[in-house]
Specification:
- With 149 residues, this protein is α+β, with helices and mostly antiparallel strands.
- The protein has 4 helices and 5 strands; from the N terminus they run βββββαααα.
- 40% of the residues lie in helices and 21% in strands.
- The chain has a 5-stranded antiparallel beta sheet with strand order 4-3-2-1-5.
- Keywords: Ribonucleoprotein, Ribosomal protein.
Length: 149
């Protein structure tokens, strides 16, 4: 018989237990998990975060308003209530995992940059100039060493 390699797709599938980031509406920027698929455009989500200001109540969400994340709560039963979802959320440390993701770090940095005052923006400008100068100096040194060799 022939050897067949079966590869698992790297796509983020819409599945029960998939963590989504809500992009629009009253819960923008908050995490929730898919607990039931209503139809091909809508899902039932629940976001029992451990932080009080990040809790998302159970509601139907259009998939066009959500971004699928790479995180999944494994073996989450379909239409699980808020209690079991909260236990599995905390067991899998979803909030901590998302905080360590590059997407969360980048959005935090964008939020910090957006809230800078005029003097803080000036300091950022000066620091970027300094860094650019140091990089150019190191690059010139490497070029000079390569030229003399």
């Amino acid at each position: 018989m022939a050897e067949i390699d079966i590869k698992v797709s790297s796509w983020k599938l819409v599945e029960v237990g998939r963590i989504v980031l809500i992009r629009s509406g009253p819960y923008t920027g908050k995490l929730a998990t898919i607990v039931e698929i209503v139809d091909h455009r809508r899902v039932l989500v629940d976001g029992p975060s451990s932080q009080e200001n990040k809790v998302v109540p159970r509601h139907v969400l259009a998939l066009s308003h959500a971004t699928l994340t790479p995180f999944v709560i494994p073996r989450l039963p379909r239409a699980a209530g808020t209690g079991p979802v909260k236990k599995l959320w905390e067991k899998n440390e979803i909030d901590a995992k998302f905080a360590q993701s590059s997407f969360a770090k980048r959005s935090d940095q964008q939020e910090r940059r957006k809230n800078l005052n005029d003097f803080e923006r000036f300091k950022v400008l000066r620091l970027r100039k300094q860094a650019r100068y140091e990089v150019a100096k190191a690059h010139a040194k490497v070029r000079a060493a390569a030229k003399s060799s």
